[in-house]
Amino acid sequence: MAYRPTERTEARRIAARERVVAAARELIAAGGYRAASVAAVARRAGVATGSVYRHFPSKADLLVEVFRRASQREVDAVAAALAEGGVAAGVETFARRALRGRRLAWALLAEPVDPAVEAERLAFRRAFRDAFAAALPAHVADRELAAAALVGAVGEALVGPVSPTGAGHDEDALVAALVAFALRALSQEEPVPC
Amino acid sequence: MAYRPTERTEARRIAARERVVAAARELIAAGGYRAASVAAVARRAGVATGSVYRHFPSKADLLVEVFRRASQREVDAVAAALAEGGVAAGVETFARRALRGRRLAWALLAEPVDPAVEAERLAFRRAFRDAFAAALPAHVADRELAAAALVGAVGEALVGPVSPTGAGHDEDALVAALVAFALRALSQEEPVPC
DNA sequence: GTCTATAGAACGATAGAC
DNA sequence: GTCTATCGTTCTATAGAC
Q1: What band does A1 get if pLDDT is binned at 50, 70 and 90?
Q2: B63-186 has which CATH code?
Q3: Is CATH 1.10.3470 the classification given to domain A1-56?
Q4: Taking CB atoms and an 8 Å limit, are A153 and B180 in contact across chains?
Q5: What ranges do the domains of chain A cover?
Q6: What's the whole-model pTM score?
């Protein structure tokens, strides 16, 4: 009789795959992409090195999946904050989550990585932009542009503080400055030349 | 007697190297990193494919040099505009140069590329940040943070318009919106919640 | 009995230590 | 510059599910 996967073996396969993804996420959150070698991921997941390739065609594919899931978590959290408390809450949530998990934030925002993952990073920023665009005050004219500028501003301002070489920052002061920057940028005031 | 390079051969070597760099820049400016295969670069530079590796240890090293030079040009132009006309002029120069050379701007700002070049992109953004920080109005408190936010805002807002899949935009309207965004963000107004 | 999934060593390439 | 360690990936034998 030919071999056919059953519910039981399928569940095992999925569980092993999940362990691999979780192990990679944890390693990246602790030490960035450098720490997530295939051997290290396999060891932490409790599978053999070669077995990683039964679940993912390449390491890049694994990283893409890990990146996609982690970034989706961030987008969801920010979108929820935006719906609850508007732009200020969205910016604050974005920044506080990044500062609380600096190493992961660095991996998501700026750490150099395989181009396949970089492409995912573009999608990640687009998702943030769309979330902010939906929450902008009504008077804003080009909402997509303003939302992109906002995401770029917050993201880039955080790159320094979350970078491994970055000095320690006062979290509250940083968040306050970022929120103020965003609210001023979105205000209806006539801009004054400087 | 052992071979020793003369002035003449050294000049030839440098000239050939420059042609390779120029060819790579032109190909990237026309079709992004995809268009800059080593074979295509060599053909355009008028050298043999293998000769590229006489000047650069790897393709990544060549790309890093091209990226560094191209990004330095942009930083210099923006820094000059900042010194001449302040933040508004700096933002306008940044945006207009990007929109005039969209494909190159895309390559510099966002196109997924080898991690070695990504590292250069981080330096590129830091250089922009420092240039803006030096030109901020005196009342701005955390100048480094504000400058980073500004660079992120302008850069990210341009990613859509300069992307190969991006629709056509009204350049003047885009520039005006970006300058206004920046000036409001840097104003002394008390931010109003939204 | 037939076939898959897994483990773990082996391989060529490369990056970092010295 | 040389060398070693480690990387991503592939291969082969085996255990186990059907």
Answers
A1: very low
A2: 1.10.357
A3: no
A4: no
A5: 1-56, 59-185
A6: 0.93
